[in-house]
Task: inverse folding
């Protein structure tokens, strides 16, 4: 079995290629930094593994996800690199290629986006390029899959041995590298020493920490300082890294001189025209808000709700009736019947009803990601976010967080500045995820039938406004800025491919269905059991059940914010597992066979005002279990994890208090 | 002359990026924008917002405060 590393610049189509070559479904988007962790897939011919690394411009890492790739090269065993390069941006793509070739493992180059390059009048002669780089080069279009079969064949038949590319960096640096190489001790599994020396002189932090484990720090510092001084004096370079870059650029120029032909520059007319509108002086932000509004309209009023209603009709009609008669025929006991019908069907079914709405939301988020609009949103929002101590890139995790907070928090890795990243991680859970959507759908269906989309939109906006306010507070107190930065690649627009959209939607949505089958299934049974049993035994009146006792214990706390019933307390406790469990719990405790009955029953327990206060509390109160776990993993700090739970609880209580008491004063 | 002196749609050649934040300069380098690069200003966002610039077909968004530190000349 051979191990092949897939490396390339961000947004060059690595993940698309990965999906084709391994026939797996990874997440694809049209913005830099989709792949934040390495992923492994089995090649279609079962002869090797392909490891999809995060996109990098250079092996010298700047942000955390870039470090993943460099660390992989240093620490892991692999036999070959598949380097995907963007034919329309060859000059800067080759910068990484050179460093991979210097590393010395065999490199196969997939020349992607030849169609885009042609559109811009760039012709690449792959034969000449291959000759120059001493490695196979194959033109492909990863989006459509053209050329990928040939590439796959090449991978497993390629030679396993290769000599590192040797570029002379001038006599002074060459000599310094030689003497550093001579000083390095022998160690097992060490990357090629000249490559290590070169990366060290370029200022690669990951390589620097590796060398520190092998050699005294003082000696490394001395060698670096002496060499830099020498190169500055003799070569007239600003710094070592500048010098190295200049030598590489010269080399690349030599390669491109013979392998690249530029025709007349054709501008990105489509991209230009779209950008004229969506990043327009006055229209930029309104257009973004309009887009969000359309998304909600589609999800609720136009497509999502009608389908959800149909599904609800099926679950509560034919399915429940079928199950009931089956259980009757099988002679099931009353207990079994109650578990299945009142526990599982009510709990799991109550959540499944919202799958259509959630899928539509995921579909629309995928569309935005794949079209290239995401990077524009980040740019349009940068000024606003800068004023509160974040940068425009923080908006991407937040939008992804609308789907699910977990990938949203992971997407924060592309933010280079550590404090901005931490702040984004802590605030992303305030973005209203699709699981919370199921709870809103339930409540707006009962209390706000006339303005469903508008009320839900207001909750999403509430989450955003609170996140932005807290960002300002946190960044000017506990997380003082060290200087914020913002540079973003703006990819050309493209029309998302139907296949990719469906894949992404399914990838994101299936987790929700899986949860319904596991977490919510189990949770429903437990909740039902707690509602069925009590101190007095089994089959008790629900008001005397264990669930009522537990919910009742915390209920007085919620009295001032409008919902002091044991039912609300119990639902909120179970909501920590996953927010949609709140819906399951309510279905079970209000013994509602279908959505409309439940909404009818709820009208007796909530007013419109307390319903809104409940939704706001649910939006803010604690990140769900999975989100807490990912916060812990991404921040690596128990302190910040606890912080994100506790501040959320406090804020939720304060906001709901203001809504409920303020609303009462205003006479609602 | 600095980058912010150029109007939207205009072109210029970069002569110095020394004063730009180190991280920003590194990222611009990664994207192929450095001394000697010819860039055109594609869009300028309002209220002191970012600049979208293009160099060799590559579009990049940078902050105005950073653009102010990039010295350019007419190309």
Result:
């Amino acid at each position: 079995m051979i191990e092949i590393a897939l490396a390339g610049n961000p947004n060059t189509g690595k993940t698309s290629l990965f999906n084709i070559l391994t026939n797996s479904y990874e997440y694809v988007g049209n913005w830099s930094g989709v792949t934040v962790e390495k992923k492994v897939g089995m090649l279609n011919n079962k002869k090797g593994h392909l490891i999809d690394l995060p996109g990098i411009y250079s092996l010298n890492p700047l942000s955390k996800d870039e470090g993943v790739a460099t660390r992989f090269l240093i620490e892991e065993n692999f036999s070959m690199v598949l380097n995907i390069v963007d034919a329309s941006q060859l000059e800067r793509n080759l910068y990484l290629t050179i460093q991979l070739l210097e590393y010395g493992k065999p490199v196969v180059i997939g020349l992607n986006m030849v169609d885009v390059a042609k559109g811009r009048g760039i012709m690449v002669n792959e034969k000449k390029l291959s000759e120059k780089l001493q490695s196979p080069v194959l033109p492909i279009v990863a989006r459509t899959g053209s050329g990928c079969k040939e590439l796959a064949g090449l991978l497993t038949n390629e030679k396993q041995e290769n000599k590192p590319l040797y570029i002379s960096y001038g006599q002074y640096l060459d000599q310094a590298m030689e003497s550093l190489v001579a000083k390095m001790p022998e160690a097992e599994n060490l990357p090629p020493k000249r490559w290590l020396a070169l990366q060290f002189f370029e200022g690669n932090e990951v390589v620097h920490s590796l060398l520190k484990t092998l050699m005294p720090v003082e000696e490394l510092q001395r060698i670096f300082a002496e060499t830099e001084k020498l190169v500055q004096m003799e070569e007239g370079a600003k710094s070592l890294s500048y010098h190295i870059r200049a030598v590489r650029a010269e080399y690349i120029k030599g390669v491109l001189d013979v392998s690249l032909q530029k025709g007349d520059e054709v501008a990105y007319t489509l991209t230009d025209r779209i950008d004229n509108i969506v990043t327009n002086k006055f229209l930029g932000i309104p257009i973004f808000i309009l887009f969000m509004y359309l998304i909600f309209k589609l999800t609720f009023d136009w497509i999502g709700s009608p389908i959800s209603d149909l599904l609800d009709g099926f679950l509560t009609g034919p399915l429940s009736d079928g199950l009931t008669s089956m259980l009757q025929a099988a002679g099931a006991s009353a207990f079994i019947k109650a578990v299945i019908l009142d526990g599982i069907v009510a709990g799991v079914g109550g959540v499944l009803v919202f799958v259509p709405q959630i899928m539509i939301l995921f579909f629309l988020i995928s569309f935005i990601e794949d079209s290239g609009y995401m990077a524009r949103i980040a740019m349009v929002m940068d000024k606003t976010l800068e004023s509160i101590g974040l940068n425009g890139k923080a908006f991407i995790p937040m939008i992804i967080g609308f789907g699910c907070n977990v990938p949203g928090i992971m997407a924060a890795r592309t933010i280079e500045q550590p404090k901005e990243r931490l702040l984004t991680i802590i605030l992303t859970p305030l973005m209203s995820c699709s699981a919370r959507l199921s709870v809103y759908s339930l409540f707006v269906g009962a209390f706000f039938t006339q303005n469903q989309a508008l009320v839900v939109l207001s909750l999403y906006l509430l989450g955003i406004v609170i996140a932005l306010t807290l960002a300002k507070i946190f960044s000017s107190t506990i997380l003082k800025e060290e200087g914020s930065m913002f540079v973003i690649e703006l990819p050309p627009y493209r029309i998302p491919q139907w296949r990719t959209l469906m894949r992404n939607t399914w990838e994101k949505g299936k987790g929700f269905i899986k949860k319904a089958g596991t977490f919510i299934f189990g949770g429903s049974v437990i909740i039902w059991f707690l509602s069925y049993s009590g101190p007095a035994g089994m089959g008790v009146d629900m008001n005397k059940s264990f669930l009522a006792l537990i919910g009742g214990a915390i209920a007085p706390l919620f009295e001032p914010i409008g919902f002091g019933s044991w039912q609300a307390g119990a639902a909120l406790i179970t909501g920590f597992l996953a927010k949609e469990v709140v819906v399951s719990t309510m279905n079970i405790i209000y013994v509602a066979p279908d959505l409309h009955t439940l909404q009818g029953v709820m009208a007796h327990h909530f007013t419109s005002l307390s319903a809104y206060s409940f939704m706001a509390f649910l939006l803010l109160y604690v990140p769900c279990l999975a989100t807490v776990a990912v916060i812990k993993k991404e921040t690596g700090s128990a302190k910040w994890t606890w912080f994100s739970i506790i501040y959320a609880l406090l804020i939720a209580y304060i906001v709901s208090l203001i809504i409920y008491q303020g609303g009462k004063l205003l006479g609602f | 002359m600095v980058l912010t002196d150029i109007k939207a749609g205009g072109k210029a050649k970069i002569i110095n990026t020394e004063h730009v934040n180190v991280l920003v300069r590194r990222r611009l380098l990664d994207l192929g924008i450095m001394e000697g690069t010819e860039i055109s200003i594609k869009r300028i966002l309002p209220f002191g917002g970012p600049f979208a610039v293009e160099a060799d077909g590559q579009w990049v968004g940078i902050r105005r405060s950073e653009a102010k530190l990039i010295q350019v000349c007419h190309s």
Observations:
- The two ends of chain A are 68 Å apart (CA to CA).
- Chain A has three domains: 2-157, 171-262, 286-482+503-665.
- Chain A is about 65% helix and 5% strand.
